[in-house]
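Task: complex structure prediction.
Instruction: return structure tokens for all chains below.
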Amino acid sequence: MTRLRPLEAATPSRARTPASTRWKAHLRRFGPAYLLILPAVLGMLFVHYIPMLSGIMVAFRDVNLYTVTQWTSAPWVGLQNFIDGFDPAGRLGARFWRSLWNVTLFGVVTIVLGYVIGMAVALLLNRPFPGRNLVRGLILLPYITPDSVAYSVWRFIFQARIGLVNKWLLGWGLVEEPIIWLVGSRALYAVMIAALWKGWPFAALILGAGLQSIPKELYEAARIDGAGRWQQFRYIVLPLLAPISRTLILMSVLWNYNAFNQFYVMLGKDPGWAADVPSTLIHRESFTTFDFGVGAAMSLALMAIMLIFTAIYLRAVRRGSSLAEG
Amino acid sequence: MATRSNTQPRRRQRLRRALGWVLFSGAVALVLLSVLIPYGWMVSGSFKTSLELQGADVTQPGREPSWIPRSFTWENYLNVNRTVPMLDYFKNSLIISSGTMVLATLLAFLAGYALSRFRFPGREAYVVSVLSTQMLPGILFLIPYFILFTWINHRFGIQLRNTYPGLILTYTSFALPFSIVMLWSFLDTIPKELDEQAQIDGASRLRTLFSVILPLARPGLAAVGIYAFIMGWNEILFASVLTGRGTRTVAVGLLEYITAQEAHWTGMMAASVLVSLPVVVLFTLMQRAIIDGLVAGATKG
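Output:
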């Protein structure tokens, strides 16, 4: 309540009334609001905020399978967990940096291609034709299919001897020998293809909604002025979709560093050196090796990256919505 | 001459339009095909016999995996519970997802109403914290959360890991940010005059909330409820750590068809069809509302 003081001081009539009365008036006015958000706040406090704070403490302690039940008194190790986690010369540190590189590469490819395909399909479906609603519903299928189902099916599709991809590649004579897709460096590309299949419909959905909010008159005016399709796209669609595109891409960047499901389902607990991502590495370090301290230290590093992106994201959303409102 | 020069461009225009139509339909067909092929392969695999599927080999002509099962069978669906206790996992998922649905909808309704109707001090900060929580990935707090569960169990004897309430609480909190924003937008569309009128008529805040606003907010509540249900049904990361034998959900249970020793692809494909059905049906029912909410969630600020 201390934060309210300046506001109250600014209104002299209120300043004269006794503090307890003012407090009561505030309570009567806003009390219900605080009561209403309380359950949600408690839930998020317990699941999100308290763990996030205690995660910082875990990162400085040697918390393992034996010390986990009394983690608050686990031995303090200072920066050792961070050294283990990030020293590029160490086994684990090398893996961490490689996983960060892998997930970045994965993100650049899937986000850029996902945006391009999403935009193309959104433009394609922006003109009316019979059955458009059905088509729009069908292209959302990948987005709504549970991750475990979708990526299990793609794991099946990429199988070397019984998979669809190799059946086609061999059938068309593009390769001589069946390709081992899900082991080694190719695994990352296989996951990229699957994630792209699952990811572009969301971009198409958001961009499609943006396209529909562009007034038809703008295109007409442009056509009268002699603008072709490309010019209409370049000078109407792209600038008007810029705010929503910025939000979409930043959101995708955040989700990208979170990528876990596609790798875990398609490649298992250990996707291998060339396809490991931070999430699978942290997961393994914590729940297979049971070195919670190092896992927490790596999570913190990831959190720092995410916070930077979140700050950018929030600023972009602010700017985006104020632009949309005019 | 005059007629000739007149019909020529018209015919050419018609030809161009026909060509454009063919190209357009071709492009739509291509998009649909690339979306649907994996589903086709999944369904086809689910009707093959294990013998046919595991015996297939892309290198041997005549033994390549085929689109149409050579010997069609329902066995994989009938025996879906044999290698993996999938029916138990369905029950677990149903309980956890339904619990999440009810709790998340209720809490988000209350919080969304507060955001829509009150300009309380700290509101801005609350909105920012909700929006940024939505952006923070699960792996960040999975470890401390797991440790917290272990510690609570050790300290107070309350088991949260491997229990329904523990998972419902977890997923409710995951579903909250998006649900709150979605219901907040929805409640904003219900006129404030209704609340004031009800209060003039002598109804309490709580009474207004539940007997005036709630019925009007039903479409929004349904969308949020289904979103929360789907969230609980699909979640993998926390389920892989916090569930045990008795509470495993379908999303992680599905992976058990493939072990280091054996790969039951046909069973996995049949189970995949069954696992995705509820989600697809629910989403189709509420498509409009959820899409509006998704678009709002991506642009609200």
